[in-house]
From TrEMBL:
CDD domains, alphabetized: ABC_6TM_bac_exporter_ABCB8_10_like (cd18576), ABC_MTABC3_MDL1_MDL2 (cd03249)
Predominant localisation class: membrane
Entry's transmembrane regions: 43-64, 84-106, 166-183, 189-209, 271-292, 304-321
Protein name per the record: ABC transporter ATP-binding protein
PANTHER family reported for this sequence: ATP-BINDING CASSETTE SUB-FAMILY B MEMBER 10, MITOCHONDRIAL (PTHR43394:SF1), ATP-DEPENDENT PERMEASE MDL1, MITOCHONDRIAL (PTHR43394)
Domain of life where this protein originates: Bacteria
A molecular-function term among this protein's GO annotations: ATP binding
Length: 608
């Protein structure tokens, strides 16, 4: 059956994969930057504020230096006031400017990125829902969903935080190092000599810790899967008395989680003690060498103080780079995946309802002429081979055949979900290619095997067939579909919320809602994909009656699993491995001694 499986995608990747950053990937993602264009002024102002707050941040150690010098009775430098309070006042003034500017910087960046991201999200979603079915065949719903959520959130984080942080830290780094060199070249050189050791250790340890924590996350996810599976299939667990087996499986998995976590703890502990030693060692080293320089009269105390403060800035800047870089890498990967969707070719369907109105009426004559088809994802397998048949307006044509024969594929082709490779599909004698796609889909309705209802109310679910229908029309459709009575038996009637949190409707009830939906749509051609699971006889009668009402005056293509329901069909097409094997009425086909239809009928014990 060619239905789409709705994959929940519950096992989302704990971490988004990173991409290599090179010229090509950057060029590619710059396409996404065009989404910033409408908000460029806000972005530029935010950017200037960012520069301002970073640069003013760099002034503090210099101010502290002058303040200490003034406190020691020395004259002030850089034209600053000659009193401690004066300099303190200036420091607070700068602080105030910084706070003010930071507020607007964050506000502006968030506004720009939220709006730009909503634009990208909207475009990606619009694109996604107008992509041809072939696109969805190869992808899980969970994966596509995570592009809209996880990937775009990553891009957003990077736009709002990582880029700003990176710019700020680069300023801090360059500015800080410049001040360090100005204050004391000797001390800077000494500092630079010990730096590589810390950096290398940080990178090595950091990588090992990240690997282990990822493993721990995976392991934890695996053990969660055990819980999920067990609880979902609890009746199976109980029926097979496999409680002990499941308990053991979970226990084993948890032990592994702990083991990996402990290994991670060892690395983490080692890293922490190493960093404590190195970092404080480095600070001590600088203090020691700096004090030595002070003792030798080669450095002032105030310079040493400023030097220490700038070192902290530089160290902090360096510390944040690996994380920022990793974030940017993830964002590049995420952008590439989003762009992949944005660059796909869509179907000719507009997202504006006024463009999708019916332009050309279809009476209901349908014909397949020598149709050959294979799915885009499996081109080598020919699913339909030289299929020709006709259904005149108002006729009931049933398609039968064993599982995998290609029945649902025919339904998909009538709806033009895919393009055929050879032959023609004609509506009222005119090729399907010459109709607007919306004209075809607007005049065909399908009642699928598995009716999927949306999370809203019953009313909304029926109205899905005709969005501008009024309540009277909806109720009339529900009455004709034998659904009105059961709907009214719910306390909230048509406003009953279906779906996970609402009432669970039975299979037969869902089918009748789908029939009401189709009635409301009032199509020229109807496709009925008969439910394989049989309903109880009362429910079956109600559904059957509703279907009869629905089929009246329309061309109906019935994909039948139970032959008992199609005896009255004007034509029965027997499909075998993608080819038409027999055509005729029930009475004609049942006469063929060696016929497939007769064989299928006898399998269902229904020869009369
Ligand atoms: N999206 C798809 N991509 C690739 N192959 C597909 C796809 N959907 C169906 N097929 C293949 O096409 C063939 C016909 O499938 P189809 O679903 O049309 O059969 P069916 O007669 O409706 O079967 P059933 O009675 O079990 O619903 C099968 O071999 C199936 O594996």
């Amino acid at each position: 059956m060619a239905r789409n499986r709705f994959n929940s995608g519950s096992k989302q990747d704990a971490e988004l994969p990173k991409a290599k950053i090179n010229k090509q990937s950057l060029q590619k993602i710059s396409a996404l930057l065009s989404y910033l264009q409408p908000y460029k002024w806000k972005f530029i102002i935010g950017f200037l504020f960012l520069l301002l707050s970073s640069l003013t941040g760099l002034l503090f150690p210099a101010l502290v230096k002058v303040m200490v010098e003034v406190a020691q009775g020395n004259p002030s430098e850089y034209g600053l006031p000659g009193t401690v309070s004066g300099i303190g006042g200036i420091a607070f003034f700068i602080l105030f400017i910084q706070a003010f500017v930071s507020f607007f910087r964050i506000r502006l960046f968030v506004e720009v990125s939220e709006k730009a991201l909503a634009d990208i999200r909207r475009d990606t979603y619009f694109k996604m829902i107008t992509l041809p079915m072939g696109f969805f065949a190869n992808r899980r719903v969970g994966e596509l969903n995570s592009r809209l959520s996880a990937d775009l959130s990553q891009i957003q984080d990077t736009l709002t935080t990582s880029i700003a942080e990176m710019i700020r830290q680069i300023i801090m780094l360059i500015g800080g190092v410049t001040f360090l060199i100005i204050i004391s070249t000797k001390l800077t050189l000494f500092n630079l000599a010990i730096l590589p050791i810390i950096v290398v250790a940080g990178v090595v340890f950091g990588k090992a810790i990240r690997n282990i924590s990822r493993k721990a996350q995976d392991q934890l996810a695996d053990s969660n899967t055990i819980v999920e599976e067990t609880l979902q299939g609890i009746s199976n667990v109980k029926a097979f008395v496999n409680e002990a087996y499941e308990a053991n499986r979970y226990d084993k998995s948890l032990r592994q989680v702990v083991q990996i976590a402990l290994k991670g703890a060892t690395y983490r502990g080692g890293f922490a003690s190493f960093i404590i030693f190195c970092l404080f060692g480095a600070i001590m080293g600088v203090m020691w060498y700096g004090s030595y320089l002070v003792e030798q009269g080669m450095l002032n105390v105030s310079d040493l103080l400023a030097y220490m403060l700038y070192s902290v800035f530089v160290g902090a800047a360096m510390g944040t780079f690996p994380e920022i870089y990793a974030n940017v890498q993830k964002a590049v990967g995420a952008s590439e995946r989003v762009l992949e969707i944005l660059e796909e070719k869509t179907e000719n369907i507009s997202i504006h309802p006024e463009n999708n109105k019916i332009k050309e009426k279809i009476e209901g004559n349908l014909a397949f002429e020598h149709v050959e088809f294979s799915y885009p994802s499996r081109k080598e397998i020919i699913v339909l081979n030289d299929v020709s048949f006709e259904a005149n307006a108002g006729e009931k044509v049933a398609i039968v055949g064993s599982s995998g024969a290609g029945k649902s594929t025919i339904a998909g082709l009538i709806l033009k979900f895919y393009d055929i490779q050879k032959g023609k599909i004609l509506f009222d004698g005119k090729s399907a290619d010459d109709y607007a796609l919306t004209d075809i889909r607007n005049q065909i309705a399908i009642v699928p095997q598995d009716v999927i209802l949306f999370g809203g109310t019953i009313l909304e679910n029926i109205a899905y067939g005709k969005l501008d229908a009024n309540k009277e029309e909806i109720i009339k459709a529900a009455q004709q579909a034998n659904a009105h009575n059961f709907i009214m038996s719910f306390p909230e009637g048509y406003d009953t919320v279906v779906g996970e949190r609402g009432v669970k409707l039975s299979g037969g009830q869902r089918q009748r809602i789908a029939i009401a939906r189709a009635l409301l749509k009032d199509p020229a051609i109807l496709i009925l994909d008969e439910a394989t699971s049989s309903l109880d006889s009362e429910s079956e009668r109600l559904v059957q009656e509703a279907l009869e009402t629905l089929m009246k005056g329309r061309t109906s293509i019935i994909i039948a699993h139970r032959l008992s329901t199609i005896r009255e069909a004007d034509k029965i097409i027997v499909l075998d491995k993608g080819q038409i094997a027999e055509v005729g009425t029930h009475a004609q086909l049942i006469q063929k001694e060696e016929g497939i239809y007769k064989h299928l009928s006898s399998l269902q014990f229904e020869i009369q």
